């Protein structure tokens, strides 16, 4: 018997929605700078895959950054995202 995680269930639901309503609910990617849990002075940059208003997937892109570096990286990623679309 296999254990199914919440992440696997969300991914399966996303696949079904993409097959059914691909034009209605396209996944979007957002970039955010967040503080780490261990040390609030250390920041990380995360990439969120959103389906509507629900977070489907989270990926850490950079860790151990100062606040200004994390915010600069987020601005760069967002600007590249706008230029590409």
Which features would summarize this protein structure in a list?
85 residues; three-stranded antiparallel β-sheet
Shape: flat
Major beta sheet, strand line-up: 1-2-3
Please provide the count of β strands: 3
The number of helical elements comes to 2
Low-confidence stretches: none
Rg calc: 16 Å
Strand content: 25-35%
- Given helix and strand content, the structural type is alpha+beta
Major β-sheet, in short? 3 strands, antiparallel
Protein architecture, described:
By secondary structure, the chain is α+β, with helices and mostly antiparallel strands. It has a domain at 26-84. Helix content is 39%, strand content 34%. The chain has helices spanning 6-20, 67-84, and strands at residues 28-35, 43-51, 54-65. It has a three-stranded antiparallel β-sheet. It is flat.
Write the layout of secondary structure elements.
Blueprint: H1 6-20, E1 28-35, E2 43-51, E3 54-65, H2 67-84
Antiparallel strand pairs: 1-2, 2-3
Short overview:
By secondary structure, this protein is α+β, with helices and mostly antiparallel strands. 39% of the residues lie in helices and 34% in strands.
């Amino acid at each position: 018997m296999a254990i199914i995680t919440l992440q696997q269930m969300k991914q399966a639901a996303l696949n079904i929605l993409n097959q059914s309503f691909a034009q209605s609910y396209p996944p979007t990617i957002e970039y955010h700078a967040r503080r780490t849990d261990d040390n609030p002075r250390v920041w990380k940059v995360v990439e969120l895959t959103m389906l509507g208003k629900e977070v489907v997937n989270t990926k850490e892109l950079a860790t151990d950054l100062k606040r200004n570096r994390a915010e600069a990286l987020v601005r760069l990623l967002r600007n590249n995202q706008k230029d590409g679309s």
